[in-house]
Structure formats: C-alpha cells, structure tokens
Amino acid sequence: VKPEVLKGHLDALVLAALEAEPAHGYAIIQRLRRRSDEVFKLPEGTVYPALHRLERDGLVKSRWTVTNGRRRRVYRITRSGQEGLAVRRLEWKTFSRAVEAVLA
Amino acid sequence: VTYLDRLGRELAAVGIRGRLRARILAEAADHLADGDEGAFGDPAELARRFADDLAADRSRRAAFTAFGALAAAGLGFAAAWLAIATAGFPDIASGGAAGVAGAIGIVAFPQVAFAAGLLALLRARRRDLSAAGIALLLTRTRVALAFGVLAMVSLAVCGAAFAVAGWILPVALALTAPLAASAVAVRRAAVVKSSVPGGAGDVFDDLPVSVPRRPGLLLAATTAAAALATLVAAPNHEGIRNAIVEIVLVVGSWLALGRRLGLRR
After folding, report:
1. Chain-centre distance for alpha carbon A28
2. What is the pLDDT of residues A24-36, one digit of tens each?
3. Between the CA of residue A12 and those of A1, A45, A69, B27, B88, what are the distances in Å?
4. What's chain B's Rg over C-alpha atoms?
5. How far, in Å, CA of B222 to CA of B114, rounded?
6. Nearest to A45 among B41, B54, B57 (CB)
7. Residues B64/B70/B76/B79 CA torsion (nearest 10 deg)
8. Nearest CA distance, B39 vs chain A (angstrom)
9. A46: contact with B, CB 8 A cutoff
10. Across chain B, which distance is largest between two alpha carbons, in Å?
C-alpha cells in the first residue's frame, strides 16, 4: 500500500496502535506492521508528525522515560483520543461498507 | 554528515528550531538506534510534514489568541465608552488636536480591528489551510492586532485629552499588553513555512454558509448595515452625519484593505 493512500487514515491507525498500551514511535510502527500483516509499510519517520499533531490536539500525551539507560518518548492515548478513535472507527465502517457496496 | 545532521538542517530550513527541533531529533535518534535510516524516510520530506502541520496549527492558535486579546480590549473599550457616555460626551474641540485624533481613532480603529479579527476567526476554524491560506490568516490577524493597538492608544489619548475618567488611560494602555503578546504568537507562527499547495481563497471560502461570490454585494450590505445601525442609535441630524462617516469608513477600509484581508481578489 502506497504511503499516500494511508495519509488520511494515519491518525486513526496510530490511535488504534496506542489503544491497548502506551508505546514509543518505533513500537507503534512495529504494531502497525504486525497488525496489518506487513501491508502498512510507511516511511517510519512519518509516524512522528502524526504523533505530534495528535498530542497538540490533546488525543495523546507523551513523556520521556528512561529504560536501561535509554531515553525514549512514550505516548499514551487520552480519553479524548479514545473518543476520537471511536468516532473514526464508525466513520471508517460507514465509508468501507459504502466502497465495498459500490465496488462489489 | 549523518542522517540526524541532515534532518536537523531540514527542520531549521522550514523554521522548526529550539526545543521542538531538539525533541524531534532526540526521538529520531532513539528510533534510528533500532531501525535504519532508509526506512525512516527522506529528511526533507519529514521536515516538510512537521512544518505543514505546525504552521497551520500555530497560525490557527495565534488567531484564536489574538481574538481573545481583542475581546478583552473590546470589553475595556466598552466600559470606557460607557463611562464617557455617562459623564456626557465632551466637545471634541476641547481636547485639542490630540483629542480630535483620538476621537477619530476610537470610532474608526476598533471597527477595522473587529472586522479583521472576525475574518481571522472565520478562517482559523478551517482545518484545510494551504500555505497561501495560512499567509492570509496571519495577515488578517496582524491587521486586527495592529488596529486593536491603535484603538487602545486612541482611547488612551482621549482619556488624557478629555480627562473624563482617570482610569481610562492606564486601562487602555494595560489592555495593549495582551495584544502585543498575541503579536509574538503571530510572529512565532509565521516563522514555520508550510508547503501545502493551493490558493489563499477569500471570505466566501471561509463563511460557514454558502453565499453568492459577489464582493460588491457584500460591501453594499455591510455598508448599509453599518449606516442603518448608526441611524437607529441616533435617529436625528447627528445620526445622519454619523451614518455618512460610517459609509466613508467602510468603503475606505474596503478599498485600502479589502484585497489584503481576502474580501476581494
């Protein structure tokens, strides 16, 4: 899947990747790959503008943590983020059903 | 030259500096300790993505902040106007040249500030801003703030020249501080360079309802509304004089600032 196809959905995908537990950028990319059966192979850096955007909008929060002497920025979804994700899920279901109905 | 050096340069080139740039570089360094540079993406493209988001976000926030500062200034202005009206409007000539200039200023400048601020607010609600659209938003915000400061200075001049209420001068000067602080936010937003393609559009693109794209009609309606409001406020000889002043003011502002504020193309 070309990265530009995912562009409009990246925020929702990142929120979904953070839904279960907090993670740093690299782990988010790995989760997206694993959960999409390696279909989503974004340029890895693109997850960071999305994370910063989501943080500015209050949908995720982040803080530096130190693990084994290594500083990592860990992101977690907020309550607003969970609500936003639920809305995006509903929109996606409606959209995908409509596309499927037309393409089928 | 390392990948992080190139990313740092590209971030600086799009106006992302200081703590944010350091944070992005630290996150990239952490990521690259596990992943590889090729998979991380082109530094210029990555910097561009950060800048596109940040420029729009900062510009929108700066516009909201500015409108908040203008609203606070407006409240102070209204209180001062009420105090002057309660004491009885002084003879405009009694304040000398400064008084006349201040009196003209307190009539004209707040209206331009309010109109430009409202236009900025309308645009700031949009989330689909191109680089040109952001430039227009920042211009509207700057004009609103500049005329807001001029309005408060005019009020301070009136307070000093006519000596109607002692508190007007210090309050007017104090209320310029939030306006100046908002100007800093605008300047900070303008540093970040968006590259999102597209035209700037105009007021008709910003309105929440669809109206015919006829700038002349918009000017006529605005002028008529301003003149009518003046006549309703004072339905006498003075009201007619004030309505003429309003018509001159609205048309003059339109001619001087209409294109710059995206009221006409």
Report:
1. 7
2. 999 999 999 999 9
3. 16, 17, 32, 21, 60
4. 23
5. 13
6. B41
7. -100
8. 5
9. yes
10. 80
Rg (CA), chain A: 15
Which one of B33, B39, B49 has the shortest CB-CB distance to A44? B39
Q: Specify the higher pLDDT residue, B27 or A9.
A: B27
Between A11-25, B18-32, B79-93, B95-109, the lowest mean confidence (pLDDT) is in B79-93
| Residue B30 sits at the chain A interface (C-beta within 8 Å) | yes
Closest CB from B30, B45, B57 relative to A71? B30
The token pair at A18 is 């953070």
Q: Is B141:B262 a contact under the CB 8 Å cutoff?
A: no
Question: Is A49 in contact with B42 (Cβ distance < 8 A)?
Answer: no
Residue A1 is predicted with a pLDDT of 61
CB distance from B42 to chain A under 8 Å?
Answer: yes
Check: CB of residue B106 under 8 Å from CB of residue B62. no
A4 falls in which pLDDT band (50, 70, 90)? low
**pTM of the predicted structure, to 2 decimals:** 0.89
Q: How many CB atoms lie within 10 A of CB A86?
A: 11
How many Å apart are CA A20 and CA A25, to the nearest integer? 15
> What is the predicted pLDDT for the residue at B1?
87
Distance to chain B for A103, nearest Cα, Å? 29
Residue among A9, A23, A32 nearest A73 (CA): A23
User: Can you read off the two tokens belonging to residue B107?
Assistant: 């009539």
Residue B8, CA atoms < 13 Å, CB-side half-sphere:
13
Residue B53 and residue A49: Cβ atoms within 8 Å?
A: yes
- In the predicted structure, residue A82 carries a pLDDT above the cut 90: yes
